[in-house]
Amino acid sequence: MWSALLQDVGVNVLAFVPEAMTDILRLEQVFQVVLPDQLKDLLVEVGPISGRYGEGIVWGTEEIEKQNHLMRASADFRSLSMSFEQLFFFGDLGNGNLVGFRILQGEVDALSVFKWDHESDSRLSLYLTLEG
Considering the entire predicted model, what is its pTM? Predict the structure, then answer.
């Protein structure tokens, strides 16, 4: 499903490197969340997706873990920003801004995608979903 959809919009499907389900399940354990099936399916079928200019539209599991740890653990972010415990980042826009799902009661809400603005610390609902 995902590879056909992405191919239809001009993404080079030969470059896909699918993620292992074991890595995705490890993310759920590390962050104590339940990830949306749409994100799991996307990662297993096609893996990370980069944009034309190198932006990480959807990161792989290693980058997802690294960036979420960084955003939660950085002393700089804790002193300058609101908490990131309610967001689960999965990609970036190539300009320093990140995109992530809202976390409610341990579940990552696939219907709530937010953009975090790195300059203003604002969080804007994008009204996007990962529906294939």
Answer: 0.84
> How far are the Cα atoms of 63, 68, 81 from residue 57, in angstroms, in the given order?
12, 15, 23
- Please answer whether residues 46 and 16 qualify as being in contact, where contact means their C-beta atoms are separated by less than 8 angstroms: yes
Place of tokens 């920003």: 81
How do residues 34-79 score in pLDDT, each as one tens digit?
Answer: 999 989 999 998 888 887 777 788 899 999 999 999 998 888 777 7
Write the burial class of residue 68 (CB in 10 Å: 0-12 exposed, 13-18 middle, 19+ buried): buried
Domain that residue 41 falls in? 2-125
Q: Which amino acid is at 11?
A: V
CB-based contacts of 45: which residues, under 8 Å, 6+ apart? 1, 2, 3, 16, 18
The answer as to whether 132 is a domain residue is no
| HSE, side-chain direction, 13 A CA sphere, residue 35 | 26
User: Phi and psi dihedrals of 26, rounded to 5?
Assistant: -65, -40
Identify the CATH number of the domain in which residue 111 sits: 3.40.1580.10
**Total number of domains in the chain:** 1
